[in-house]
Amino acid sequence: MCHRSFTRIATALLAGLICMSAGLSQAADPWVEYQGTEGPGKGKHIVLISGDEEYRSEEALPMLGQILAIRHGFKCTVLFSIDPKDGTIDPKNQTNIPGIEKLAGADLMILALRFRELPDADMKHFDQYVNSGKPIIGLRTATHSFNYSRNKQSPFAKYSFNNGDWKGGFGRQVLGDTWINHHGHHGRESTRGVINPKNAKHPILTGVDDIWGPTDVYGVKNLLPSANVLVHGQVLAGMKPSDKPVEGKKNQPMMPLFWTREYTGTSGKTSRIVCTTMGASVDFESEGLRRAVVNASYWCTGLDKQISPTSSVDFIREYKPTFFGFGKFKRGVKPSDHAL
Q: What pLDDT band is residue 1 in, cutting at 50, 70 and 90?
């Protein structure tokens, strides 16, 4: 064999080994990444953090990440609550979300947590992001993302949803309100999003004309005055979009459902904040809700003028979300199973 042929074969083998190594490394990552294609979001990085026991954020956030990356150009990294024993996604694990340090390079954080209590080393990265002036989108249970019941002496215990000193913790102080109650009858009364006519021309509502989801309306009774309500939540009498609104006090007045505000952290820099109390995996079957969250991602990252009413928010691959409920998550799923 000539030297030139041997070199070509050796180079090919080496390249193959490098690709295999990279593939194995990626498969072992406890998160999933979607590289942005061409689009307005190209060059910007969104970190989406899932971790709730009931509303299947571990299904919704990979779907959103795929849309934001493939349809709109953002690089998206999705983090999960992970069982450290086998590397599978375990929404019941409240203390382990690998990859939080990736927030250091993020341009936007999308959050769908519930009652987490992360180690201080991880919360340090979260805290730095919250105070950096960078934007945040909170979905559904993000208003009660944290519950410090084990380590109440942690410097980050103030993030707890029921904190008394930093009243209402992260939910109230950053997003605008903390968890109060189910305003609609959970599992029996669904939600119709009613656009606030005062804000009908807000960029986030571009192309949004219908929002409905099977989750109930949350009680939002102490929303900070600085919040700007874009959509109110109308309680429907049943679990179908055709059901009529409930009569009486539940809809008089309607609760805030989707709002924006600003938060100034310890850095002195101000963040754009978006929060909605919708956001279960089944809620995102609503094209209107998907569009509102995609538009919010543009708005949060300073791409307001790039928002289009005709941009695609179609699913990248078949989306059959699991209906909400405790203990209903799919066992044995690893982050790599969400890779494209």
A: low
pLDDT in tens, 82-140: 999 999 999 999 999 999 999 999 999 999 999 999 999 999 999 999 999 999 999 99
HSE on the CB side for 316, CA within 13 Å? Answer: 18
Q: What percent of the chain has pLDDT over 70?
A: 92
How many CB atoms sit inside 10 A of residue 124's CB? 15
Segments making up each domain of the chain, as ranges: 29-180+257-335
CA distances from 169 to 31, 270, 285, 314 (A): 27, 18, 31, 35
- Residue 14's H or E segment, with its range, is helix 3-28
Q: Is it the case that residue 6 has pLDDT exceeding 50? A: no
Encoding tokens for residue 155?
A: 């410097």
Q: In terms of CATH architecture, what is 29-180+257-335?
A: 3-Layer(aba) Sandwich (3.40)
Q: What are phi and psi of 42, to 5 degrees?
A: -60, 130
Strands across the sheet containing 255-264: 31-34, 75-79, 45-51, 108-113, 136-139, 270-276, 255-264, 228-235, 191-195, 211-213
Residues 6+ apart with CB under 8 A from 99: 29, 30, 31, 47, 77, 79
Q: What is the DSSP letter of 272?
A: E
The model's pTM: 0.91
